[in-house]
Design a protein that fits this description.
147 residues; Arc Repressor Mutant, subunit A; globular; mainly alpha; three-stranded antiparallel beta sheet; 6 helices
Length: 147
């Protein structure tokens, strides 16, 4: 497959498939993939995080993160942390929900094991490098085609 249009199509198909699969896996815990990703971020960044930091990491609008965070707060997965800047909302994983950490790790491991079965580390590395280059090209400042 050397056709860039087909590759773009496959990337979008893969993204939707992965999201759908993870939504099914997380339904048992009343979580969506988007909520799961924020919990993953908070697990990796054990200190509190601002919504702006999370939005930047996920490359989404802050308003999207705010909606997801509001749902996570209602479900008691996260809690607000005081900030020196009143305009900034900081959050962290609620201490009472620390039991979700091994569950998240288990789901990640099972998902990755299934997704990457039969794929070598070399192939994963090349794919990662290629996707990274595509992301850099899309996010290149001053390129009017993408703004």
């Amino acid at each position: 497959m050397s056709n860039p249009k087909e590759l773009v199509h496959q990337i979008f198909q893969l993204s939707r498939t992965m999201t759908s699969h993870l939504n099914k896996e997380m339904a048992e815990y009343n979580l969506t993939h988007a909520q799961f990703v924020i919990i993953q971020y908070l697990i990796k960044n054990t200190a509190s995080s601002s919504l702006v930091d999370i939005a930047r990491y996920l490359n989404v609008e802050k308003s999207s993160v705010t909606r997801i965070v509001n749902h996570l707060e209602k479900s008691d997965y996260i809690e607000q942390v005081p900030s020196t800047d009143q305009r900034e909302k900081r959050i962290k994983l609620d201490d009472s929900r620390k039991e979700v950490i091994p569950i998240v790790h288990q789901i990640e491991e099972q998902f990755e094991s299934k997704a990457f079965k039969g794929i070598s580390n070399e192939e994963i590395g090349i794919t990662f490098q290629t996707l990274f280059k595509i992301m850099q090209n899309i996010n290149k400042p001053g390129d009017e085609n993408f703004e």
